[in-house]
C-alpha cells in the first residue's frame, strides 16, 4: 500500500513539474527579451524552412537541365518549342490556381509583409503549395522573376505554421516568421548577413535585440544548409571587380543620378501596370505576361529568366553599347509584365539584371570620354546592381551587404555607397518614389501600418502582465459576499449559469451608507494573445478587466482561466516606458 501511495505521489509530482516547466517556458516566450528558448525554437524552425528551400532549388536545377542551362542554348527561332515556354507556363499557373481556393491565391513578399504586420506573421499553410508549384513553373518557363519571392513566402509559412503547432504566444510567432524568412533568403543566396538586414529593413522595419539573435541564428542555418547542399558558392564571384581610383568618383556621382532616374522609372512603370491589371481576370493577366515574354524572347532571349543572362551579357568581353541598351529596355519590359500582371516570383533577381546592364552602359559611355574607365566595367556592373535593389526596395544597406557577400569582394563598399546615396535621393525626393512592396500593398488594399503604441504592445504576451492571484467561484449568491470579503484584494471571478465569466465588485451606494454586489461581464483572451488585444478590449471604456484562459489539452472546448489583466495595470505598463 505504501508503495502504491508513493507511486501515485511520484506521478503527480512529475505532472506538476511538467506543468510548471511548460508555464515557465510560455512565460519566457511572452516577454520582449532574448532567451535561450526563443533561439532554440528559431533554430529548429529554420532547419525546416531551409530544407523546404533546398528542395525548391534542387527541383529547379533538375528542370533547368532539360529546359535551359545558359544563353548559348536559347533559340529565338519560331520552330524551337522552348520559345513558347512562357505560354505553357501561364497555362499551367492558371490551371493550378483553379485547383486551389481563391482565398489563398495571394502570395509573395508584399503579402508576407501584410501578414507579418497585421497577423503576427501567421501565413496560411494552404498558400504554400500554390507558391511552391507556381513559382517553380514561372522560373522554369523563363519569366523575368526571381527566386527570393518564393523563398521568403515558403520560409515564412514553414516557421509560422510550426510555431502555431507548438502553440507559441503570438509575439513569438512573429519572431519565428521573421526567422524563417531569414533562413529562406540565406538558403537561396548563401548570404546570411544580407538576409538578416533584409528582414530588418523590409519586413520587420524596426530593430529589437530580442529579434536579432533568433533571426541571425536562422540566417546562419540557411547559409550552412545551402553550403552543404551546393557548396560555398558566391554567385557573382566571377565578376572582375577592381578598386576604382578616387579621381573617378565625380563620374560615379553622375552614375548615381542616372541610376536614380532609371529606378524611379522602373517603379513607376511596374506599379502602374499592377494597378491597371489588379481587377482583370487572372487568365487575361497571365496571357498578357506570357505573350509579352514570348515576344521578347523571340527577339532578345537574353532578357528572359531571373537576371543571370543579362548579367552575363553585361560583363562579357567588349559588349555592344546598342545591344546593351536594347537588352536593358527588353529586360525592364519583361519584368514589368511578369511582376505587374501577377506571375509568382521575386523581383530581386530581375533588379540585379537591370542594374548590371545600367552599370555596364554607364561604364562604356564613360570610357568613350575617359578611356581609363574601361577596366572597371565589372565594378560599375556591381554598383548598378546594388543601387537598383537598394532604391527600388528601399533597402540600401541590405543591397550593399548582399552584393558584398555575393561577389566576395570588399572593394565595392565605398563606391557602391557613394552611388546609392544620390540615386536614393533622386528617386525618393525628386520623383516621389516609394518601396515597391508598400505601394503594392496599397494597390491591393492590404494594410501594413501599425501605430507605435500598438506595435509596442504586440511585442509582449499577456502572460507577462496577467495577475495569477485571482479567485474564481461558481454562481451562488449566498457565498459570493463571503468569498469577496476573504479575497483580500484579489480579483474575484464568477462563472454564471451560462458559463460566462463575470467580475464581482463591492460598490458603495451614493445615496445611503451601504454596499452592494455588482457583476460586470469580462471579455476573454487566450494566453497566446499579446497586450495589444487586451488594450483593444479595454480601450473603449478605459476601465475594466479581461480574463486570460488556455484550452485544456484533453478537452479543447474547455477554457481554464489562468489570469486577469486590468486596465489600470495595463496603463501602468504603458507608462513605464518599456512598451
From TrEMBL:
Subcellular localization: Membrane
| Extent of the signal sequence | none
Q: Which UniProt keywords apply?
A: CBS domain, Chloride, Chloride channel, Ion channel, Ion transport, Membrane, Transmembrane, Transmembrane helix, Transport
- What's one Pfam family here? Voltage_CLC
* Cross-referenced PROSITE patterns: CBS
Which intervals hold domain CBS?
517-579
Task: Give the superkingdom in one word.
Answer: Bacteria
Its topology with respect to the membrane? Multi-pass membrane protein
Record field: transmembrane: 38-63, 83-100, 175-199, 251-270, 282-300, 321-343, 349-370, 377-404, 410-431
Q: What is this protein called?
A: Chloride channel protein
Amino acid at each position: 500500500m505504501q508503495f502504491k501511495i508513493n507511486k501515485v505521489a511520484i506521478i503527480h509530482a512529475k505532472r506538476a513539474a511538467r506543468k510548471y516547466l511548460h508555464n515557465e517556458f510560455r512565460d519566457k516566450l511572452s516577454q520582449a527579451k532574448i532567451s535561450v528558448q526563443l533561439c532554440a525554437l528559431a533554430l529548429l524552425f529554420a532547419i525546416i524552412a531551409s530544407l523546404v528551400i533546398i528542395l525548391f532549388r534542387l527541383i529547379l536545377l533538375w528542370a533547368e537541365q532539360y529546359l535551359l542551362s545558359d544563353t548559348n542554348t536559347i533559340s529565338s527561332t519560331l520552330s524551337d518549342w522552348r520559345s513558347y515556354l512562357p505560354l505553357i507556363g501561364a497555362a499551367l499557373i492558371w490551371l493550378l490556381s483553379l485547383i486551389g481556393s481563391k482565398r489563398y491565391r495571394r502570395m509573395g513578399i508584399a503579402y508576407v509583409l501584410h501578414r507579418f504586420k497585421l497577423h503576427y506573421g501567421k501565413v496560411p499553410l494552404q498558400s504554400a503549395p500554390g507558391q511552391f508549384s507556381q513559382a517553380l513553373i514561372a522560373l522554369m518557363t523563363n519569366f523575368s522573376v526571381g527566386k527570393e519571392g518564393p523563398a521568403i513566402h515558403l520560409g515564412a509559412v514553414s516557421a509560422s505554421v510550426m510555431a502555431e503547432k507548438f502553440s507559441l504566444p503570438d509575439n513569438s510567432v512573429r519572431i519565428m516568421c521573421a526567422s524563417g524568412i531569414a533562413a529562406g533568403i540565406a538558403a537561396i543566396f548563401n548570404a546570411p548577413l544580407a538576409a538578416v538586414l533584409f528582414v530588418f529593413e523590409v519586413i520587420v522595419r524596426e530593430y529589437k535585440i530580442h529579434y536579432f539573435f533568433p533571426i541571425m541564428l536562422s540566417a546562419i542555418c540557411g547559409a550552412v544548409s545551402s553550403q552543404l547542399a551546393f557548396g560555398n558558392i558566391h554567385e557573382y564571384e566571377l565578376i572582375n571587380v577592381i578598386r576604382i581610383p578616387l579621381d573617378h568618383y565625380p563620374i560615379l556621382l553622375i552614375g548615381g543620378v542616372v541610376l536614380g532616374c532609371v529606378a524611379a522609372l522602373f517603379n513607376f512603370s511596374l506599379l502602374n501596370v499592377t494597378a491597371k491589371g489588379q481587377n482583370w481576370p487572372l487568365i487575361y493577366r497571365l496571357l498578357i505576361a506570357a505573350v509579352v515574354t514570348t515576344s521578347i524572347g523571340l527577339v532578345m532571349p537574353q532578357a528572359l529568366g531571373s537576371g543571370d543572362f543579362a548579367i552575363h551579357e553585361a560583363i562579357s568581353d567588349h559588349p555592344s553599347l546598342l545591344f546593351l541598351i536594347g537588352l536593358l529596355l527588353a529586360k525592364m519590359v519583361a519584368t514589368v509584365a511578369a511582376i505587374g500582371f501577377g506571375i509568382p516570383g521575386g523581383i530581386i533577381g530581375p533588379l540585379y539584371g537591370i542594374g548590371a546592364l545600367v552599370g555596364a552602359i554607364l561604364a562604356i559611355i564613360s570610357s568613350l570620354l575617359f578611356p581609363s574607365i574601361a577596366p572597371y566595367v565589372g565594378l560599375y556592373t556591381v554598383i548598378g546592381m546594388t543601387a537598383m535593389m537598394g532604391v527600388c526596395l528601399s533597402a540600401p544597406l541590405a543591397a550593399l551587404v548582399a552584393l558584398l557577400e555575393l561577389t566576395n569582394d570588399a572593394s565595392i563598399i565605398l563606391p557602391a555607397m557613394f552611388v546609392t546615396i544620390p540615386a536614393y535621393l533622386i528617386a525618393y525626393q525628386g520623383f516621389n518614389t516609394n518601396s515597391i512592396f508598400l505601394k503594392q500593398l496599397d494597390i491591393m488594399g492590404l494594410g501594413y501600418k501599425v501605430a507605435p503604441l500598438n506595435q509596442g504592445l504586440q511585442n509582449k504576451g499577456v502572460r507577462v502582465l496577467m495577475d495569477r492571484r485571482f479567485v474564481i467561484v461558481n454562481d451562488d449568491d449566498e457565498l459570493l459576499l463571503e468569498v469577496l470579503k476573504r479575497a483580500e484584494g484579489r480579483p474575484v471571478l464568477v462563472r454564471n449559469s451560462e458559463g460566462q465569466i463575470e467580475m464581482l465588485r463591492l460598490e458603495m451606494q451614493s445615496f445611503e451608507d451601504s454596499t452592494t454586489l455588482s457583476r460586470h461581464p469580462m471579455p476573454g483572451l487566450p494566453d497566446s494573445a499579446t497586450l495589444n488585444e487586451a488594450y483593444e478590449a479595454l480601450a473603449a471604456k478605459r476601465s475594466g478587466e479581461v480574463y486570460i484562459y488556455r484550452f485544456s489539452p484533453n478537452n479543447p472546448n474547455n477554457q481554464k482561466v489562468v489570469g486577469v489583466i486590468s486596465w489600470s495595470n495595463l496603463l501602468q505598463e504603458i507608462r513605464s516606458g518599456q512598451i
